[in-house]
Amino acid sequence: MTLTVRSVPTTPFEGQKPGTSGLRKKVKVFAEKNYTENFVQCILDAAGEQAVNGAVLVVGGDGRYFLKEAVDIIIKICAGNGVGRLLVGQNGILSTPAVSALIRSNKANGGIICTASHNPGGPENDFGIKFNCENGGPAPDAFTNKMYDLSKVIKEYKVVEGINVDLNKIGTNKFEVNGKSFVVDIIDSVANYVELMKEIFDFGKLKAFVSGSKPLKMRIDALNGVTGPYVREIFINQLGATDDNVVHTIPLPDFGGLHPDPNLTYAKDLVDTVSAGDYDIGAAFDGDGDRNMILGNKAFFVTPNDSLAVIADYVDCIPYFKKNGVQGFARSMPTAAALDRVAKAKGQEVFETPTGWKYFGNLMDANRLCLCGEESFGTGSNHIREKDGIWAALAWLSIMEHTKKSIEEICKEHWKKYGRNYFTRYDYEECELAPCNQMMTDLENLITKPDFVGREFSNGGKTYKIKLGDNFGYTDPIDGSVATKQGLRIIFEDGSRIVMRLSGTGSSGATVRLYIEAYEATNVLGAAADMLKPLINIALEISQLPKYTGRNAPTVIT
Ligand code: G6P
Ligand code: ZN
């Protein structure tokens, strides 16, 4: 029986504007009649004929509340728009890195990912949808702007209502829509990704290291997010770890009430357990599996900046890079510059991009970049076009195996060799938007005045002299596209920096991010909080943040 397509009249919703990483709103908003349908239709319209008609798309998400409903809508709308085949993770489950890998290994035309990443889930919390292109990476600005423009004028969406697929059952579901074939393959959520990890890392060596005669003391925390099944397959089944090495490995619709963000505040259980116990490594991943946090013994914290720099330094102990060579590094602008020093030592190019993984894609596709990261707990390589939490943990295990040293020793040696970029980020969440915008405007005016350069600020016995103040802009070296107003930078003579920007991933209100970085060439073993205090005070003074936001303390410190 051939199924027919129905055009359903609809009207635009306000604010379907994708942020740093897709559209994120409360579940209640996505559940409004036609809201999700409209947005999916706009994705397909923005993707255009060749990425839709007869195309292959990957669909999945992080297991959060509303996932199955959204996947069902996506299947029906894809059918209505002439898509040829969908690869859907079992029960809708696919981590963000796994989607990226599947798009690439199947030469698919793109993928639709249902996630609000590290934002809390459940009926009262967030949902999200984003589109990844055929290179496996998040859609670039031009594409998401097009989606947004279309969302403002949408009049109808196309749907095939008679398609019902059992998401639990692995296998092929064939349909005929207007005389053409439409296939929905329900696939194993982890198999393809695990194969990729086995190609990148030396699983033989890692297995001996993790579960040999002296088993590694490990605590891997999936925070009830999507990585649970991946963690179990890789660490337990492949590397021989035991059940007590992994926790929170069942993806839950509300993440068990946890905030699935791997940082010192939200991954508290991991931090407390690793501090109190005797562990060689602690690691956590976010809701959709692209972020990571790495801890050493007694919860020695590896900042994402240092993590990236250390992996860059030891890049040769990962078989993937040995085989494919090393082609450049990159970090986002707010990320501390520890990486730059390694790049210099290795004679590698290093790029400074705006916040958002999408800015790395072009450089990777052009073979100018193979390893990159962000201060926001993202680390990854050109094996896919997303950051990759489990990949980062496996990279650290590879370095530990290679050096036979502890995480703390590895970091301290790194600082002795390169100096240390002390770093912290203060987040002020759910502030009122208008005063925050005003603060950013006023601060920009102040720091871009010519007489700002050369001014000196002193606090706690330290004096910092201004070298430059600007609103960061970036021209993509590959396609020349320009991104402006990516964050305010105050750079000091000694390389220390204050950066301030508004988050692009929140679903309500404004989140101010204040990034503080102080470089020390030799004084590398101080406590980060003490070392950064003077610069933090200077940042609060210059920006007048407490006055504008009414906040005397950040919500989260990372
Ligand atoms: C997501 C993106 C990252 C980005 C982060 C920034 O996680 O995938 O690439 O660094 O958002 O979020 P923000 O809230 O600071 O805009
Ligand atoms: Zn994420």
TrEMBL record:
GO molecular function, one term: phosphoglucomutase activity
Pfam families, per database record: PGM1_C_vert_fung, PGM_PMM_I, PGM_PMM_II, PGM_PMM_III
Assigned GO CC terms: cytosol
Location in the cell: Cytoplasm
Biological-process GO terms, alphabetical: carbohydrate metabolic process
Region (Disordered): 1-21
Residue ranges of every copy of the Alpha-D-phosphohexomutase alpha/beta/alpha domain listed in the record: 16-156, 192-295, 304-418
UniProt xrefs under SUPFAM superfamilies: Phosphoglucomutase, C-terminal domain, Phosphoglucomutase, first 3 domains
Compositionally biased residues, Polar residues: 1-10
InterPro entries for the chain: A-D-PHexomutase_a/b/a-I, A-D-PHexomutase_a/b/a-I/II/III, A-D-PHexomutase_a/b/a-II, A-D-PHexomutase_a/b/a-III, A-D-PHexomutase_C_sf, Alpha-D-phosphohexomutase_SF, PGM
Keyword presence, Lipid biosynthesis: no
EC number: 5.4.2.2
Keyword Zinc found: no
Record keywords, A-Z: Cytoplasm, Isomerase, Magnesium, Metal-binding, Phosphoprotein
Necessary cofactors: Mg(2+)
Catalytically driven reaction(s): alpha-D-glucose 1-phosphate = alpha-D-glucose 6-phosphate
Primary subcellular site in the record, as a coarse category: cytoplasm
Family to which the UniProt record says this protein belongs: Belongs to the phosphohexose mutase family.
NCBIfam families: PRK07564.1-1
Name this protein carries in UniProt: phosphoglucomutase (alpha-D-glucose-1,6-bisphosphate-dependent)
Record organism: Polypedilum vanderplanki (Sleeping chironomid midge)
Lineage, highest ranks first: Eukaryota, Metazoa, Ecdysozoa, Arthropoda, Hexapoda
